[in-house]
């Protein structure tokens, strides 16, 4: 039976090594489009790894030296918590929607609109960049800002490169400390298989884009947040698993998909349970189609919390520890936490749920 520290160390090393491989492969690509968009999509998950590793430092070897400046630590924490979406216990849905309205949508509009000297040409101005892969949204400039963990005002005032350079360098050093640093023989990540020709981008007016999607023109900030859910779902359904078999994914890719899926589903449940959010009948039905499937109910079953917490926080509960096998996929957690399932069948269930969620969100977004 492994010790808790051993489970923590193996999980962190797998995640850190995967992230190191992703960024190594991205930085070797000739296409700046895949580099920039892929980096933005994976960035909050890198922050998740580093944030949780810092909080498990007592379980790591003494030789591991993790140092982040106060600024980088704060940014890392905000980026990690952004993945909770509406399930964040620090303010929940109200805080997230206010943040999206005041600190992202309005800040972006204030910066990008009203700059054209010719009043008649102002209708051509845009304040939202939309990036698609295989025809589906995988991120937007609003989503990217939200998940970077840096305020829009700071990015606009000081410049993206100037703000992020030191922070990303510090995170990179943390990954090197946490991972093996040697990637020879490792499988390639999505960065090596992503199709440059499948990536498109367009600039639009946020008010117009959000006014035509999801719940309609009366709830633009809800629609903006739901567009972020849509982008995450599409990313884990397509780009993240480019070149991979979704039924036999490596530990870190499965983890990213599962955690992202769980928070989308749980957040939709939070939204559904708030009558003050003024959801239309069609929106209520769309949410029920997503969270009401057998697969979605299994993924969000409270009885599987130990599985999610082990993936998220690395340390298993004492009751699970004596059943863990570090040589097995997901450390043998699948049949422990999901009776009747093994790794492959659980992977199939999660993949089906992701594809359903992605498809339904894309259809819901086009209802107007």
Report what the structure shows:
With 368 residues, the protein is mainly alpha-helical. It is 60% helix and 5% strand. The chain contains 16 helices and 3 strands. It has helices spanning 4-27, 32-54, 70-82, 92-112, 141-148, 152-158, 160-178, 206-211, 220-237, 251-272, 281-291, 294-299, 305-313, 318-321, 333-337, 343-365, and strands at residues 128-133, 136-140, 199-204. It has a 3-stranded antiparallel beta sheet with strand order 2-1-3. Helix 2 packs across helix 3, helix 2 (32-54) packs across helix 7 and helix 9 packs antiparallel against helix 16. The model has no long low-confidence stretch (mean pLDDT 91).
Briefly summarize what is shown:
With 368 residues, the chain is mainly alpha-helical.
Largest sheet: 3 strands, antiparallel
Stretches with pLDDT under 50, minimum 5 residues: none
- How much of the sequence is in beta strands? under 5%
Give the overall shape, derived from the CA principal axes.
globular
Helix count, DSSP H or I runs of 4 or more residues: 16
Order of the strands making up the biggest sheet: 2-1-3
Number of strands: 3
Radius of gyration: 20 Å
Structural class: mainly alpha
> What is the helix content?
55-70%
Provide mean pLDDT, rounded. 91
């Amino acid at each position: 039976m492994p010790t808790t520290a051993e489970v923590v160390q193996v999980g962190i090393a797998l995640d850190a090594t995967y992230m190191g491989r992703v960024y190594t492969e991205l930085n070797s690509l000739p296409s700046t489009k895949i580099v920039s968009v892929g980096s933005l999509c994976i960035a909050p998950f890198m922050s998740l790894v580093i944030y949780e590793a810092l909080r498990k430092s007592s379980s790591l070897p003494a030789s591991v030296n993790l140092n982040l400046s106060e600024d980088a630590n704060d940014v890392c924490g905000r980026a990690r918590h952004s993945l909770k979406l509406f399930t964040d216990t620090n303010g929940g849905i109200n805080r997230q929607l206010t943040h999206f309205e005041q600190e992202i949508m309005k800040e972006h509009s204030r910066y990008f609109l009203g700059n054209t000297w010719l009043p008649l040409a102002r209708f051509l101005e845009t304040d939202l960049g939309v990036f698609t892969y295989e025809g589906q949204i995988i991120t937007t400039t609003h989503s990217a800002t939200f998940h970077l963990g840096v305020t829009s005002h700071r990015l606009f005032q000081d410049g993206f490169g100037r703000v992020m350079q030191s922070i990303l360098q510090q995170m990179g050093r943390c990954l090197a400390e946490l991972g093996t640093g040697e990637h020879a023989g490792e499988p390639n990540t999505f960065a090596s298989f992503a199709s440059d020709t499948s990536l498109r981008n367009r600039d639009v007016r946020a008010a117009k884009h959000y006014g035509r999607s999801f719940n309609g023109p009366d709830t633009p900030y809800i629609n903006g947040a739901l567009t972020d859910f849509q982008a995450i779902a599409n990313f884990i359904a397509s780009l993240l698993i480019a070149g991979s078999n979704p039924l036999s994914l490596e530990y870190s890719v499965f983890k990213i998909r599962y955690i992202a899926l769980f928070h989308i589903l749980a957040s939709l449940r939070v939204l559904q349970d708030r009558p003050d959010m003024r959801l239309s009948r069609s929106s209520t039905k769309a949410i029920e189609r997503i969270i009401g499937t057998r697969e979605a109910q299994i993924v969000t079953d409270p009885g599987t919390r130990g599985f999610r917490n082990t993936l998220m926080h690395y340390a298993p509960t004492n009751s699970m520890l004596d059943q863990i096998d570090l040589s097995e996929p997901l450390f043998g957690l699948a049949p422990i936490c999901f009776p009747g399932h093994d790794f492959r069948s659980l992977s199939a269930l999660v993949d089906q749920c992701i594809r359903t969620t992605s498809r339904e969100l894309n259809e819901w977004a086009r209802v107007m």
